[in-house]
Design the sequence.
């Protein structure tokens, strides 16, 4: 699959946003407690969204320097990412993030973030694909989308015909 998961994207976002205070080896991330939400949505161009992977993402940050960086910045970064992600969190009943903070020393903490995320499971036709759907073979990939680059409009002003 060529698309990154929401967990990969938020982890990369946090790492980039927290540099130079947090290094890549200070962040671990994994998925837990997943559910497949079946949707069978025809996306056109022979692509389908057959489901959504709803899961709890866990992000573990070690050595967070809470005296050098305001911890509320981390909370704001998480909120900003989730708002910008475009998922309607209410529609998919995605819980708000849970955050646990444990002191390691006087100037460092460990932060454990748990948040519900959603990833599309999109398939496209592929004669060598390993997914059989509607009697055809498919592969997991981003479904192609046609995007209009121009639009024609007709404006009718009172009495013009």
Sequence:
């Amino acid at each position: 699959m060529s698309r990154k998961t929401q967990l990969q994207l938020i982890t990369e976002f946090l790492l980039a946003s927290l540099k130079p205070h947090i290094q890549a080896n200070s962040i671990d991330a994994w998925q837990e407690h997943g559910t497949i939400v079946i949707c069978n949505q025809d996306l056109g161009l022979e692509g389908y969204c057959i489901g959504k992977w709803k899961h709890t993402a866990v992000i573990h940050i070690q050595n967070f320097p809470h005296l050098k960086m305001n911890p509320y910045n981390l909370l704001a970064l998480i909120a900003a990412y989730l708002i910008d992600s475009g998922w309607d969190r209410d529609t998919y009943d995605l819980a708000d993030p849970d955050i646990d903070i444990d002191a390691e020393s006087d100037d460092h903490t460990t932060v454990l973030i748990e948040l519900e995320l959603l990833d599309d499971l999109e398939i496209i036709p592929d004669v060598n694909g390993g997914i059989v759907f509607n009697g055809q073979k498919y592969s997991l990939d981003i479904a192609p989308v046609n995007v209009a680059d121009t639009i024609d409009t007709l404006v009718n002003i009172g009495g013009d015909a």
Observations:
- The chain has one domain: 6-140.
- The longest strand covers residues 27-44.
- The helical segments are 6-18, 71-84.
